[in-house]
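[agent] plan:
  1. take the single chain provided in the ticket
  2. run structure prediction with default settings
  3. attach structure tokens to the ticket
  4. add a short note for the reviewer (M.T.)
[agent] executing step 1
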Amino acid sequence: MAGVPDSGPNADVIIVGGGVIGCAVAFRLAQARLKVLILERGEPGAEASTAAAGMLGAQGERVAPEVFADLCLASRDLYPRFVAEIEEASRQNVAYRRDGTLLVALEEKQADELHETFQAQTRRGFQLELLEAAEVHRRVPGLAPDLRCGLFVPGDHWLDTERLMRALIESCRRLGVRFHAGQAVTRLNVKNGRVESVEARSGAHVASDSCSAGIFVLAAGCWSRELVAALDIPLALEPCRGQLVEFEAPEELPLAVRSGLHYLVPRPERRVVVGTTAEYAGFEKAVTGEGLHSILQGTTRLAPLVNRLRFRRAWAGLRPDTADHLPILGYGKLENLIFATGHFRNGILLAPATAQLVSELLLTGTTSHPIETYTPLRFASRPVSP
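[agent] step 2 finished; step 3 output follows
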């Protein structure tokens, strides 16, 4: 839908959800001089966004289908400009590092996969380096002594997600975006195929407030499904818990390193984030002994250097996963409700592209990348688990 209908009394656009996706969309819409209101059930950015490790692994991740892989690459390539704009607007540094990522094979199967990745991506013109074990150890000392090989991906970057969110939120505020924190949206009021308003409340025993706008964007992550279930819009979406641990190192880790599900990501002040788990435990956002054991077992196998690091803290986040592990983007059954949710493990990576696509769709009715694959209507014919 091109253009913005006559705005209601609260805003031109109301965004439900104040994570990296909601804030990135708000940033772009505010740049277009729209009045934007973000409703966030907790504190902006305090859920999956700041819980993420911060790897921008568009090449290192083996994703399908190809159209989604292309979207990931396009979003990664938007990051330098995205970060520059946020840093300029907020006057804050987000610790965006472009040193590249090192993928490590500990087993023969992983080595075969790295060789396949190298061959496939070099055919597409990407720059990668296939490394013998000795060269891997030279670049990052302290890794597994029996590793098979490595693949250096100079285009896959990383950043500090906590700094990113602080800067993004400040940028939005400086552009006039309003935040209503601690406001859990409980209902979307629909009439004649349009959302007229949303109801939100700050506590279980507090009366709901109604907020109206011309356009609504649903970016509520794991909580998106329940908000549209009453509207007969089924979303095959559920939370996937990821646990992480942060250590303090005697010296800075030179690169982000990953092998399978386990990784080490450098952060400023000689910090190292290691992870992760993938657990379907409902909305229980907890750090568990089993999770920590899994992380330490996997990361010390990858990098024995972890054994010498000083523990700082541990946390967990809930990633919004869909049945096909693809995001949910675009219009559905309602003419003024845009979906921007279900990004699973790629929320940080896909924030710039999602913001661009949603703003294009809202302002012009078209998008620079195809989004039909991500339609919220694709789950209508499949059962949604309780």
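[agent] step 4 note for reviewer: The domain at 100-156+238-321 is CATH 3.30.9.10 (D-Amino Acid Oxidase; Chain A, domain 2).
[agent] ticket updated
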